[in-house]
């Protein structure tokens, strides 16, 4: 255990990769290591990058990594991809787009595939980001594809959330419906050299006017052309502006506490689900279900009794 901690804290990439593989595979041994690493977390700036496929997030990340390395910052990347139905691996090839950073000892890039379980992926991605935090990376970038519920769940770990869109994709209204508008701290119009960039910016501004913000921060809109490295410096400046805003108002720690509360709740729910599945696999439960089918017992009664078994409680309302 001590060797694992020392090697990960020293940014030994092979051991970091092996631990993340354990996390992906649900290895029970991962828990002890993660518990030992936890005291070393909380120092990295976690930045979420999300948006529809084709928005150019990977090339944008490549440019952002290059900019951060120019500032001597160490960078970790968790790229959450859809999964190939043939190989079971991530299919977007983020590491191919970021090959110029592959040999940099202060950059770690890992793609994680859903393998058909987005809920499990959400948990695994958060734990992987925490490993990179404990390893001492200054900035951890978390990229997700799409704007569905699983992506929103993953974004719940981020200190700053950026939504990437591109002109002509016709996706801004769908993004609004998905609820990501409220979660985004800034908007990035990538491929801004394409026709329609100005119109897209106007549409985002209009939608922002409709969204009720619970705070005074109005997400800025940054235009970038990542393939030409244009706008990256301004993007980083706006991210820093958001961080200062959170810190000055005490929201930096407040946001992290909310995220930790949500994570603890997720873990409790997962533990209860596993315990409940174990109980419900017993033959007695099937017998009770038969009694429900024969109208000898009511569903609520059976549910209450079996939940009491799991919780170890009797009496009172559940």
UniProtKB/TrEMBL annotation:
GO terms for molecular function: GTP binding; GTPase activity. InterPro entries: GTPase/Isobutyryl-CoA_mutase (IPR052040), GTPase_ArgK (IPR005129), P-loop_NTPase (IPR027417). Pfam families: MeaB. Keywords: Chaperone, GTP-binding, Hydrolase, Nucleotide-binding. SUPFAM superfamilies: P-loop containing nucleoside triphosphate hydrolases. PANTHER family: LAO_AO TRANSPORT SYSTEM ATPASE, LYSINE/ARGININE/ORNITHINE TRANSPORT SYSTEM KINASE. Belongs to the SIMIBI class G3E GTPase family. ArgK/MeaB subfamily. This is Methylmalonyl Co-A mutase-associated GTPase MeaB. It comes from Paenactinomyces guangxiensis.
